[in-house]
Amino acid sequence: MISWQTQTGSPEETRCLGELFGGLAEAGLVVLLSGDLGAGKTCFAQGVARGLGVPSGSPVTSPSYSLMHIHQGRVPFYHFDLYRLSRVDDLTDLGYDEFAEGDGLTLVEWADRMTDGLAASITVCIDPLAGQQRRFRFEARDNRGRALLEQLDVRWTASQGPSRTKSRENL
Amino acid sequence: MLVLCIESSCDETAAAVVRDGRELLSNVVASQVDVHARYGGVVPELASRKHVEAISVVVNSALEAASVSLARIEGIGVTRGPGLVGALLVGLSTAKALAWGLGVPLAAVHHMEGHILAPLLEAPLEFPFLALAVSGGHSHLYRVDGIGRYRTLGQTLDDAAGEAYDKVAKLLGLGYPGGALIDRLAAQGNPEAVAFPRPMLHKKNLDFSFSGIKTAVLQHLGTYQQPLEDQQIADIAASFQAAMVEVLTRKTLRAAEQEGLARIVVAGGVACNSGLRAQFGALAAEHGAKVYFPSPALCGDNAAMLGVPANYYLENGRHATNLVNALSSWTLDMAGAD
Questions:
Q1: Are B289 and B266 in contact (CB under 8 A)?
Q2: Which domains does chain A have, with CATH numbers?
Q3: Do domains B2-117+298-335 and B125-293 have the same CATH topology?
Q4: Which of A143, A130, A166, A140 is nearest to A17 (CA)?
Q5: Quick check: helix, strand or coil at residue A25?
Q6: Which residues in chain A are contacts of B215 at CB distance < 8 A?
Q7: Are A118 and A111 in contact, with CB atoms under 8 Å apart?
Q8: pLDDT digits 0-9 by tens, B196-226
Q9: Please, which residues bridge with residue B79 across strands?
């Protein structure tokens, strides 16, 4: 497993990480996001949308109730949220398969609620630390995910300066 | 005009018969137990399939409850969006088929214009007015200058108000529906026990942000070493509700002042919240504003609320063609433009 992790110290820093990630994402990428209530999943998604060039006039809000939102950026942004779902059938009814690996970036919040597991290039787990600090653990599940994490590491390091603590494994 | 209305944008399958955009003859929502019993078995939650299974029963129930035969229906109103495309298409296809089969016109309605016009089914209300739409998926402020004339003034930037209620209820270990349970507990607690943040209250814009209140509750819960006692839970519920209600009421009244509007509609599922109703009642008088709430049956998702705009569009020749498609993303400002 190819993994990479880092920490952010504020919601805005989480958005910056998401923005770098979104800037590297290409059509067809599927990203599974997990983390407890208040971990910062939607916050990360807001950054991803920024990186995809979604206009700021179309706020990226939590899709927990509406189950999915579609935003138009450089490529379409399919923002799913499984908070209220528990069965793969529900996801099929949403047309998930038609969106995932299609012409846009698919980001799935509460992905860990689907025990059957979904196909994806990258998984992201957010762990709350003290205060506003959050640990982000990224794992690549295929070559495309691995290439993206390698670029993310370079760009994030460049944006953070040399003082940040961060760990790399197997990259 | 006798209008059959159909709604299927998210969880609920609903149908209603409304006369002249004012008189409610029936209002049937599929989650009502009696309807479940009529098509038997367990309803798969949240599935488009559920809408398919429920729609004909719900439409027939609405006609029966109104004592109206299908042949007497003079127009069909249906939710075109926003919502889940698969779910919307069930209502939209049914509406198109009925309109075509009966030879009557079709009106395509925005889900939120239904919500904010719902009070017109119960009492006269003049335009323009300000509308606060608060539910599980929405927290929006709109200026309403007439049917089909809307302008978004502000909205949530993260969680909707109803979503924050349900997620905090989950953090507190309460059941479902979380919003109603917090509202009830809040009445027994001390609203000043915990000073939760009031996000965006002092920003000049009219947007909301409720994710931070939810996270503040989470962090507060982390400070307890022992399991919470009932009174502590009630105090947290009351303090959370106080923060939500203060932000919602103050920003809404500020919007009304900025826009020079003295009439305010509060609609959507969270409009049932007793704390919100009480606080609006108290503050509106100070501001010289009058606040209108739909009765509880018209607050949650329903089809009757579509009757007001549908009747208007039908009577004014603003008919949708049989080619009208569902719109998953559709800002209210664009509604009525067709």
A1: no
A2: 2-162 (3.40.50.300)
A3: yes
A4: A166
A5: coil
A6: 38
A7: yes
A8: 999 999 888 999 999 999 999 999 999 999 9
A9: B109
Give the closest residue to B294 by CA, choosing from B155, B150, B127, B117.
B117
CB contacts of A61 in chain B (<8 Å) are: 155-160
Domain extent listing, chain B: 2-117+298-335, 125-293
- Across the interface, of B44, B215, B329, the residue whose CB is closest to A38 is B215
Q: Is B10 on the interface with A (CB under 8 A)?
A: yes
- Buried/exposed code over B266-282 (b: 16+ C-beta within 10 A; e: otherwise): bbbbbbbbebbbebbee
Strand ranges for A38-130 from DSSP E: 68-72, 76-81, 105-109, 122-128
CATH domain B125-293 topology = Nucleotidyltransferase; domain 5 (3.30.420)
pLDDT digits (tens, 9 = 90+) for B299-334: 999 999 999 999 999 999 999 999 999 999 899 999
Helix/strand/coil percentages in chain B, nearest 5: 45, 20, 35
Task: State the nearest Cα–Cα gap between A2 and chain B, in angstroms.
Answer: 31
Enumerate the residues of chain B whose CB falls inside 8 A of the CB of residue A90: 44-47
User: Would the CB atoms of B214 and A38 count as touching at under 8 Å?
Assistant: yes
Nearest CB neighbour to B329, from listed A65, A70, A84 = A70
Answer CATH for B2-117+298-335 from 3.30.1330.30, 3.30.200.20, 3.40.50.2000, 3.30.420.40: 3.30.420.40
Which residue(s) pair with A77 in the sheet? A71, A105
CB-based contacts of B32: which residues, under 8 Å, 6+ apart?
A: none
